[in-house]
User: What shape does this take?
Amino acid sequence: MNEANLTIIVEQLADVLLKNNKRVAVAESCTGGWVAKCLTDLAGSSDWFERGFVTYSNQAKQEMLGVSESTLENHGAVSEKTVIEMAAGVLKHSHADYSLSISGIAGPGGGSEEKPVGLVWFAFAGNDNAIFSIQQNFSGDRNAVREQAVLYALTELTRFIEQ
Assistant: This one.
């Protein structure tokens, strides 16, 4: 990962949040806390980063974020419905103004024809009830998929908040 580009993106996110006196929290599945790590790499991030949830299992998504069992059964952990519920759950279970959620298939196994390795869903939410979800398909090995997901998530989170 290009650390210089990542640092610039995180600094831009921090600037936007600080200027507006807002905070962000995240829920991660396939990235395993990598987004939270990148955010907390910046000194002073406690002024704008509220918390992170690593909800790798379905049980954790249900218990920590309130994702419904029926959503997970009917749509799966890697789905638009799940990341939307995750993002909403972050706001409900934190003091953040904005949230990001990520769930995907990093590989090398776990993929299917319908949901191939590299498929990642993202949702971005705000306390104003705005929510945006999007799917991306990344290529490469497990680390490459996760790295691309982190970079994409941070870039799009900044754009979402700047709107």
Notes: The first helix runs from residue 3 to 19. The two ends are 26 Å apart (CA to CA).
